[in-house]
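Researcher: Before we compare anything, I want clean individual predictions. No alignment, no superposition, just each chain on its own. First chain goes here; please echo the sequence and then give the structure tokens.
Model: Echoing the first chain and its structure:
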Amino acid sequence: MTHYKGKGERITVPIWCAGATDGVHKVIVDTGIRDLEEYKKAEPGVSQTPAQITTAAIKRIMGWDPEEVEIVINTHLHCDHSGSNKEFKNAKFFVQKKEWEAAFNPLVPEAPFYDKLCYDKSAVNYFQWNFLEGDTEILPGLRVITTPGHTRGHQSAMFDTKDGVVCVSGDICNVAENVNGNLEPNIVVMVPETYESFQRIRQFAHYILPGHEPAIEDGSEKFIPVL
């Protein structure tokens, strides 16, 4: 999780999705894994309770059924962030065009993390997709910003809340220490861009929900300050 620090230290990391609403729209960022047994082929130590399945967690925490979700933002299309896309049949999906293209033509180091069954036409109808080219306002108080480095087309979601701007970072920051300590995450395909993305997050966000931060609690509305 922190490329230059803590080598050999074993930690248990979650796979986070986020739900948000302005009282009208129902939005989620990332959708978790597709199938537990399938994901074990890549990550043998993974575990998931029935309550942690993406659709069950959204119902438990947000009170929403899958068909109620209107907007899905994929920070990127790795299989632990797009795995349950198929469950949201009525949603509009937002992803960077560059990420979509990379997911179907991955570089050799990226290939194990892309699973086409998470985002191809069997999972998401083509007309549900909205392909973005750069920073974009999705709704008033909700924007995505490009944060390449972990993948070529990575983006992060920025929510304007009463307490300040919350960045749901995806995996440009696996843990808060990446951005606050200026430490690369464990998988990087673009090194200079990674550090530029950290700077963008520090520039815009007051708080962060990283993609795999152990200090965040299930269902919590408390996030980690960006220093």
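Researcher: Okay. Second chain, same rules.
Model: Second chain and its structure:
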Amino acid sequence: MTEPRTALLPRPRAAEVLRDATGPRRPWATALRTLACGAAVAGPAITVATGYTPPPLIHFTVLANLLLAVAFGWSAVRSWRGAPPLPPYLTGGVLLLAAITALMHHLVLVNYTETPVPGTGWPLAATLLLHTVTPLTVTADWLLLTAPRTLRLAHIPLWLTAPAAYLGLVLTRGALLSPGTPDRYPYPFLDVDTYGYTGTLTQALALGLLFTALASLITAVDHIRPNVAGWIQHRRNRISPPAAGGLK
């Protein structure tokens, strides 16, 4: 009997079976993402160290910044190794968290008399880092270093799981604490003692609809923005010298 034809074909080399998924290092992307990670870590660190808004770890801003720090730390490592960027469903979720953090503070919370005034020194530095610097670096990364037309409306339910989980955390924590506990509900519009569960959930639903609209706007902008990352990559390829062995 003759051997099957497949047995007569040359066996593929290991390099052909498992291609190297890494590419050239991206130092500028690494630098920007390291800066974003550092800003996202510094804000919560200063807040915890100074006790500016006790108890700080229950605030959405602090938790969101910690998530952003993890995402951008991971992204910076991948950029330095030449690995592919984070998938769009994570990139969009990180951007939405940053946008919520900035817009809720600058457009909503500053109008509440219960919101503490940062003053000067470390409290002011923490406020700027948490609500302004980190969201701006996240936005710059999205606009300059990610490819457009990758976000999808189907990603939005996944992005909204973080605010939904936070709402559940706040309501569960508030129910377990005794009435009169300071900062039992960290935000005025989530205060069950004032609005009851019906009023609180109604306001949370309104915020959820606003966050959905914001996520839809981000997705729409992603599909019309220019491909700055592709232009930067094209320029770098044009001015980079040919690799060794490229000319024979």
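Researcher: What stands out in the second chain?
Model: DSSP finds ten helices and no strands in the chain. Additionally, Residues 192-222 form the longest helix (31 residues).
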